């Protein structure tokens, strides 16, 4: 058969295939079948070899022309198929209000989040965060903190004892001593961690709780710096309008000592019938004060040269206020609804 | 401490609003826990019963004509039986408001009653602490006197919290002094001179045999009359929460509440030779206290004894044997000072606490002994007793140590400046003596009643309290650079963030638990820890042990959910080594899952857990390739547990939780868990970039038949090393066991990816590498290619 006849039949089959194809993928199949490496056109080209040498260039020329036409036709068909597909996609309408498919997501415990936020605030101001053991000898818990045996203040730290002089720390303050023993001033640290006291458990009290301790010792550190940092911290944790109030108090390891209150975030200090603050407009955060000169002496710091402040706040209590939680025990119950809501 | 506001007002000018007083106290460091407002009572006056007779129409009623001062006497009927002509009583007049009712004109059995005789209860006083029936006053109370005003019954009662360093302020005068100084007004203290001074007369000798008695003032009173206290004192004590007993006991309580100095009165007739001895109790000595409680003493206790027996448990309570009674005509007053720790230890040991011991154990100032004795002598003299010369025993009172402090320290610690005059004024009001020295130094001497001010920081706190803590400004300090590292904390924080990102929810559980955890482990046929860390003084059996693992609480938590859940915890665990309780910081994550329908030799949940573990470890260490070795670990399934190694060192355990434990912990779904000791995780090592080859890679999938026990990881490692440097990845992706391979064999499908750095790899080159690698595997493990 003559090349032309072959070409003619091929073109007819090509046009049939083109007409019967629908969509981009079947057009690809047509391209492979006719123009691919082992497609029909390749077979036809091979058959040119059987022609007398003189006829070969002309036959090749005609095949090339046919291939060009087929490619053009294919490209056109492909372009219109794509246009059709985009059109079809554009006409789709879905219900965007249908519930989303949630990602597999974890969460940070709300108490820990408050702890991390407090630490992050102090880290931004140049404080390091140190953590320490929960089992401490009484020297670090008491003696070094200016609470000798028989001191009435020991009663406020009703502790769990493991041996006659090892106990579960009732506060994070032992790390004040450990840090100051290992470093010379300036010392700027916060200490988050778990503490234990033999307290009866109720909606406001736990026998195990977390504390965040802060300590800054250097030359020229005064109580105004304490108030400034705590005000900043409260604004970070509770809101930008927070105020901080100091009231005189007593702790053996600080002098002067203060109870620290912050504006009740629920009533914004208005008080009244507020269930969070009992109407006072203030929330008690915990104790603070200037490090007692005896504590500084116990770590060989000269209290005539160095001064410093420390504070210790309960983290669950801060979280309770921040998230308006009704019962502090929830922070240890890990109820799914609780963790989910505050995730 | 309950402080009736009316009592405070005797000694200091105060604002009318109790809230304002409470606020002032709070700003002085004495927070007010509650303000108990009194009910509004009006129209109650003192009346004297001029005549009393039977009601004409009722047997149970009496009718009195009551003299109420100005105006005509009132005719009032009453059902009370404790009334008699001549008594001065409480009368509610027409229109009077009482807590429960308003008095109106009414007829009682046909007779018009012009008011009501009323009881203590109707004045909102505790009925059980006062006489049954109508409230009785002294004859000295003028008829017509407004009872509420006279006894300040309308004044609120403040519940004041006093910190343990300020035992001097556990008293009405102490608090009044604070309020006076703060407002810069005068303290109107009562007369504190002792009427017995210079009076001579009998003395009670005291022999002090223990250094724990630092001061003892004794004083003898004769012509003592007992009977009830005057109404003002009974009312005041009742409002302060102290039950009135009799004139003598009430005076000792009253003086303690007012001056902080506890007292004790002995019936002098019961003390041979009026000689008291302060000594250690004898072992086994029996003691019956005033309240009837019986104690067997040890030498730990300090007693005040007569020559024959212990008559007072020092600082705690007197003995019944020498108690003052209605028959007492002579008494010996004790106003003593004891070592605080000694009293606290004794009270703790005997499980016995009193108002007196709560003051003594905070170490009162020895100088207060004379103050307490003087005030008591004043009150006893007022009641008609004759005071004799007081006698003081014990070492002489030491003068307070002067404190030199630099004025500049005020600014150094408080951040604001005060001048000499301001400082002096503020300290003066509190009773401190201030003497300026050279070089801007002040010499400060504490008043005798203060023992808590011993260094310049203490003085500065006094100045700050008086100036008001509100004066302290807010400043952000410029923290100087230091070399304290946050590594351990940041590791914990990063671990938590990573696990949360992997879909685990953080939980926080208690570190203390009871024996029930070990019971569950034992019932699972497993061994609980041999030497758990035990609390010596738990509050309850549920808090006796410190957790040895985060596992039990995690399994308990996941067991509670009915659906698959994922959680993690970061916290300390505790164990004993060489008899020392030790602890370490752990991370523990786990999930529960519905079991897959899989052959018994495969568990894709385990592989997921391992994948999470590797992702976690990669985030923590920067390393991307980890080896795992099958192993057994307590609490984990013996055949589904691996230890993850880095550089040959174990850094994590991952596996299914032992199903026997799941049964005893009642966990409905299988649980897969991973635990890591946070402190042993290698530090983060920043990964370094290696540019990938620009030339295309190729891969070959091999189906290798090998011994059933050969771990896939060994095949992968062998293939990797045999394939040489062109091999960029080796990964097993399928496993087959069954009829199509010989018994004892399995087939593992592994994909090798090959790539050359400098040119496109040819098929022939790839085939040659594979051939070499398979030959190596064949000689190492007898592996064949699956047909
Ligand atoms: Zn509020």
Summarize this structure as a short list of keywords or feature phrases.
heterodimer, A: 343 residues, alpha+beta, BirA Bifunctional Protein, domain 2, 2 domains, seven-stranded mixed β-sheet, three-stranded antiparallel β-sheet, 20% strand, B: 787 residues, Phenylalanyl-tRNA Synthetase, Chain B, domain 1, OB fold (Dihydrolipoamide Acetyltransferase, E2P), Phenylalanyl-tRNA Synthetase, Chain B, domain 3, six-stranded antiparallel β-sheet, 19 helices, 26% helix, binds zinc ion
Cα radius of gyration of chain A in angstroms: 40 Å
Number of strands of chain A: 10
Overall pLDDT level of chain A: 92
Instruction: Characterize the main sheet of chain B.
Output: 7 strands, mixed
Give the chain pair forming the largest contact, with residue counts: A-B, 84 and 89 residues
CATH fold-type name of the largest domain in chain A? BirA Bifunctional Protein, domain 2
Instruction: Give the structural class of chain A.
Output: alpha+beta
Task: Report the principal-axis shape of chain A.
Answer: elongated
User: Which range best describes the helical content of chain B: under 10%, 10-25%, 25-40%, 40-55%, 55-70% or over 70%?
Assistant: 25-40%
Strand percentage of chain A lies at: 15-25%
Q: Estimate nothing, just give the exact number of structural domains of chain B.
A: 6
Assembly state: heterodimer
Task: Please work out how many helical segments of chain B DSSP would assign.
Answer: 19
